[in-house]
UniProtKB/TrEMBL annotation, chain A:
Job description of the protein: Catalyzes the transfer of a geranyl-geranyl moiety from geranyl-geranyl pyrophosphate to cysteines occuring in specific C-terminal amino acid sequences.
Keywords: Prenyltransferase, Repeat, Transferase
Ranges in coiled-coil conformation: none
Catalytic activity: geranylgeranyl diphosphate + L-cysteinyl-[protein] = S-geranylgeranyl-L-cysteinyl-[protein] + diphosphate
InterPro entries (UniProt xref): Leu-rich_rpt, LRR_dom_sf, Prenyl_trans_a
Keyword Metal-binding recorded: no
Keyword flag Lyase: no
Protein name: Geranylgeranyl transferase type-2 subunit alpha
Listed EC numbers: 2.5.1.60
Family: Belongs to the protein prenyltransferase subunit alpha family.
From TrEMBL, chain B:
Catalytic activity line of the entry: geranylgeranyl diphosphate + L-cysteinyl-[protein] = S-geranylgeranyl-L-cysteinyl-[protein] + diphosphate
Cofactor binding note: Binds 1 zinc ion per subunit.
Similarity comment: Belongs to the protein prenyltransferase subunit beta family.
Organism: Rehmannia glutinosa (Chinese foxglove)
PANTHER family to which the protein is assigned, alphabetical: GERANYLGERANYL TRANSFERASE TYPE BETA SUBUNIT, GERANYLGERANYL TRANSFERASE TYPE-2 SUBUNIT BETA
Enzyme Commission numbers on file: 2.5.1.60
Function, in words: Catalyzes the transfer of a geranylgeranyl moiety from geranylgeranyl diphosphate to both cysteines of proteins with the C-terminal sequence -XXCC, -XCXC and -CCXX.
Positions of the Prenyltransferase alpha-alpha toroid domain: 2-198, 199-239
The protein, known as: Geranylgeranyl transferase type-2 subunit beta
Keywords: Metal-binding, Prenyltransferase, Repeat, Transferase, Zinc
InterPro entries listed in its UniProt record: PGGT1B-like (IPR045089), Prenyltrans (IPR001330), Ptb1 (IPR026873), Terpenoid_cyclase/PrenylTrfase (IPR008930)
Phylogenetic placement of the source organism: Eukaryota, Viridiplantae, Streptophyta, Embryophyta, Tracheophyta
């Protein structure tokens, strides 16, 4: 029990406590009796007051009192309206509530009863505010009081500016008042939204940064100010969503072949796509999750006039996503070797909005061309009949000069178009730079955890703004500094190491993909030595980097073969955007469940998957259970045939998550060894689920 | 504490089930007592003779789920009672007296999901109301504009999980806020700069306070989520053992 000490009661205390309990039980049964029999005499009502003043949690008692009040008011209006009597009836209620609150400040029932009385419109709101003032002096964090305050100020129509002043006073009284800071952020959001010169965003933020700086410098270890600072940062960076990148990339020439053979090309097949159906994916990637990407907002000019269907590439099936997908199809009559142009206009018409409600108002174009290679040869499935062994000797780092030149040439086309500048005004950069300076100053005297984290966030914000083309004002920011901060934080605050590892991974990947040279260091050519006639892959190798998370996929949309082995991945969110992925290595990571592999369900071309040596089946708790679509999240419809599939084999009941995952994958090769869930029975289950599978843990299936 | 006996039943029995000891209880006795707590409106009160409220209605459904006895209910009646409490803006009242709180949104959604009657409410509006209670720190309050509080966050995130709406949660931001609830002693507070409730040994809200079934339940549930050996896995959205939840949703 809150506040009740743990010690054995003395005999005397025992006696007193059981007497008290007996008294209370007696009051309770009396009140229930009055309630059920609709007895509203003065004595009865008085007894209910006694009960509620000693046990404000007895909610039926409050209900009884409300009915009693209604009964008395009705009776008075029969005798003729007498507002003074109404007043006295309601005042009595307020007195009872006040006494009850003295017993328990945090009684939901008591506070609600007071609201109910005030809603009748006969009581003094001034009095309420004075009472609240007293309560909040005693406990400035009581959220019931703050909520009630909001209720009264709305009733009294007190303007936000006045309430803002109230939060200012409370904060000056005590900087560590998270509740006051929180309310301040709510009021300022309303005021800034209403607009007007006084509450212009730039002015407000400038003043607020200065205001919170007092709190931060006075007590850097108190969280309240830092959370408010985080809100200010969010307001500073809030902007319209912008288009970042696509596949096929802007300015590229895509070779679309039917049989996987490359004709007359020495170069590596980054921009080659094999599809028997003469279609390929078109992916658009935005700076944040958006909705509204459709044929009404994005126009694609190519030979086919048909309306395209755009789908969001988020791990769940809701309407918001950073990456959006459609398919372009080229009909049979297209003469081969002729490059057909395609022009895409993004945000051609309004309708694309971020999840924060900001519109994507700047439209931009990308164009590329498509070359369909001839199909007069017989179709042979050259590519997919051989097993990918992932052997180290099959990888060759940047073999020859010409290949490198070709790569560079191709990659220069992969750079994100910088034509469209986001609507972030210049003052954002000034604010960020100022805050960086102040934060560094603070950290020079105190080794404060949240301060360090804030500095890391500020430096990343600065990097993001410069990447959007906003000119740097001289504050030099290097990825190495940000990474070093996170390494410090991991040492300072080991309890939260996973959180810092995630952020560290994202920064590392941003650094790695920030320019062509650094990305090239992680690209190897893969040629299966046992089958030299197959086309080589260009494999991006991000293995052994201690990555716990995936990011910067806007730079990796072209990737067909990816090695993420020997990392610390618990989640693979982000991989759903890599639509071209055909071979994926995730061995030796920390994947704990099949539900964590949900993003793979969006990868229609994935054929080779290695998830060996992970932790699937080793944990009693699946922490990602609700992050995937299943009957638990009411997201699976009529295609839930699991029970039929399992066919009465009870031991397989636990594998509903494997069922949901693998039934939608088109795998030819799978490695699963080294996961606790794998046994002969499970392997048989997999083979039944995936009739197209050719290789399982190195052995031929059929 | 008579008025919340039905909650107590849920806390106690779920704890027993997580400890693998539910068999020690006289199931029929419990079920018949629960049914006596039902009001003519379809809702359940905290004890026999107490007024109906969603708080106790959920506990009743949860206990019946533990015993796989949901079919003793007139499901339509209970579902209609809950559905009738949804307001125009998607929020839920706790009972006919109209108190609105996101706790009640969670309760309504969780109850109706367990009864397979989610279609009786406007789920989209319910979700939108919960999202309107989201704060700048990533957390959720009891009403729009209210401060983030760990208890409310559990309710809102749970409701969003059940309705497949977790994309509305900024997982990184909220995850960090929640991590920051852990204080040096290892315990967790409910909001910044407040005292922690420590799950420790015995189990009370903090080491020197008296034990009670409420904190024992949360202590054991916490240990289960931390994969403490010997405990059944508990589902974090429905707050019932995973095998119970799987039976209800993945069974037939």
């Amino acid at each position: 029990m809150h506040g009740r000490p743990r010690k054995a009661l003395t005999e005397e205390e025992h006696g007193a406590s059981s007497l008290k309990a007996a008294k209370l039980r007696d009051l309770q049964s009396q009140v229930l009796h009055f309630h059920h029999n609709k007895i509203y005499t003065e004595e009865a009502i008085e007894i209910s007051a006694k009960l509620l003043e000693s046990n404000p949690e007895h909610y039926t008692g409050w209900n009884y009192r409300k009915l009693a009040v209604q009964y008395r008011l009705d009776r008075r209006s029969e005798d003729g309206v007498d507002s003074e009597s109404i007043q006295s009836i309601l005042d009595e209620e307020l007195r009872v509530v006040e006494n009850a609150l003295k017993k328990n400040f945090k009684s939901y029932g008591a506070w609600h009863h007071r609201k109910w009385v005030l809603s009748k419109g006969h009581s003094s709101t001034d009095w309420e505010l004075r009472l609240l003032g007293k309560f909040q002096k005693l406990d400035s964090r009581n959220f019931h009081a703050w909520n009630y305050r909001r209720f009264i100020t709305a009733l009294k129509k007190i303007p936000d500016e006045e309430e803002l002043q109230y939060t200012t006073d409370m904060i000056y009284d005590n900087f560590s008042n998270y509740s006051a800071w929180h309310n301040r952020s709510v009021l300022l959001s309303n005021l800034m939204e209403k607009g007007g010169k006084r509450y212009d965003k730039e002015n407000v933020l400038g003043e607020e940064y200065e205001f919170v700086r007092n709190a931060l410098f006075t007590d850097p270890d108190d969280q309240s100010g830092w959370f408010y600072h985080l809100w200010l940062l969010d307001q500073t960076l809030k902007q319209e969503p912008v288009f970042l990148s696509s596949w096929p990339p802007n300015g590229s020439n895509l070779y679309l072949s039917l049989d996987g053979r490359l004709k007359g090309q020495q170069s590596l097949p980054i921009l080659h796509f094999q599809s028997k159906a003469r279609k390929f994916p078109l992916v658009l990637y935005f700076s944040e999750a958006v909705e509204g990407v459709s044929s009404s907002t994005v126009t694609v000019e190519y030979h086919d006039g048909d309306s395209l269907l755009w789908t969001p590439l988020s791990a769940n099936n809701f309407g918001f996503s950073q990456a959006w997908l459609t398919y372009l199809k080229f009909p049979d009559e297209v003469p081969s070797s002729e490059a057909r142009p395609v022009k895409v206009t993004i945000a051609h018409f309004p309708g694309i909005t971020s999840s924060r409600g900001m519109p994507c108002s700047q439209s931009c174009h990308i164009s590329f061309s498509v070359c369909v290679t001839s199909d007069d040869q017989e179709h042979t499935e050259v590519q997919s009949s051989h097993r990918i062994s992932w052997k180290e000797e099959n990888f060759k780092a940047r073999a020859t000069q010409s290949i490198e030149a070709n790569l560079l040439h191709s990659f220069s086309k992969l750079e994100i178009t910088k034509e469209n500048k986001p609507s972030t005004p210049k003052w954002s950069m000034e604010i960020i730079s100022t805050e960086i300076a102040h934060c560094r100053e603070l950290l020079s005297t105190t080794n404060c955890k949240i301060g360090k984290l804030t500095l890391a966030r500020l430096l990343m914000a600065h990097k993001t703004l410069t990447s959007y083309g906003i000119p740097d004002d001289g504050t030099e920011v290097h990825y190495e500094d940000i990474l070093a901060l996170y390494q410090d934080l991991m040492k300072m605050d080991p309890a939260h190491i996973c959180f810092y590892e995630d952020d560290y991974s994202l920064v590392l990947l941003k650094q790695l993909t920030s320019n062509i040279e650094s990305l090239l260091k992680h690209c190897d050519r893969y040629q299966e030595s046992s089958s030299p006639s197959t086309n080589p892959y260009l494999c991006v190798r991000l293995n052994g980097l201690s990555l716990s998370r995936i990011g910067s996929t806007e730079h990796l949309l072209w990737v067909q073969m990816l090695d993420l082995s020997h990392n610390k991945l618990r989640s693979i969110e982000g991989l759903e955007t890599l639509q071209l992925l055909s071979c994926l290595k995730l061995s030796h990571n920390r994947l704990c469940s099949f539900t964590s592999l949900e993003p793979l369900k969006k990868l229609k071309y994935l054929e080779v998957l290695d998830i060996s040596h992970n932790e699937i089946g080793a944990h009693s708790i699946d922490t990602r259970r609700y992050l995937c679509s299943s009957p638990l999240t009411h997201a699976v419809g009529s295609d839930w045939y699991f029970q039929k599939f399992v066919d009465g084999d009870v031991k397989l009941n636990d594998h509903w998550d494997a069922y949901l995952l693998f039934k939608d994958l088109n795998l030819i090769q799978l490695e699963m060894i080294g996961n606790a869930v794998v046994d002969e029975r499970f392997k048989a289950f997999l083979l039944k689920l995936m009739p197209e599978l050719k290789w399982l843990d190195g052995e031929k299936c059929r | 504490m008579e008025h919340l006996r039905l909650n107590g039943a849920y806390w106690g029995l779920t704890t027993l089930d997580v400890l693998g000891k539910l068999g020690a209880v006289d199931q029929d006795k419990v079920v018949s007592w629960i049914m006596q707590c039902q009001h003519e409106s379809g809702g359940f009160g905290g004890n026999i003779g107490h007024d109906p409220h969603v708080l106790y209605t959920l506990s009743a459904i949860q206990v019946l789920a533990l015993f796989d006895k949901i079919d003793v209910l007139d499901v339509e009646k209970v579902a209609n009672y809950i559905a009738s409490l949804q307001n125009e803006d998607g929020s839920f009242a706790g009972d006919i007296w109209g108190e609105v709180d996101t706790r009640f949104s969670y309760i309504a959604i969780c109850s109706l999901a367990l009864l397979h009657r989610l279609d009786k409410i406007n789920v989209e509006k319910a979700v939108n109301y919960i999202v309107s209670c989201k704060n700048s720190d990533g957390g959720f309050g009891c009403t729009p504009g209210a401060e983030s509080h760990a208890g409310q966050i559990f309710c809102c995130v749970g409701a969003l999980a059940i309705t497949g709406s977790l994309h509305h949660v900024d997982k990184d931001l909220l995850g960090w806020w929640l991590c920051e609830r852990q204080v040096k002693s290892g315990g967790l507070n409910g909001r910044p700069e407040k005292l922690p409730d420590v799950e420790n040994g015995g189990i009370s809200d903090r080491p020197d306070d008296a034990v009670d079934v409420f904190h024992t339940y949360f202590g054991v549930a916490g240990l289960s989520l931390l994969e403490y050996p010997g405990l059944k896995a508990i589902d974090p959205a429905y707050a019932l053992p995973v095998d119970v939840v799987n039976r209800i949703f993945l069974g037939k």
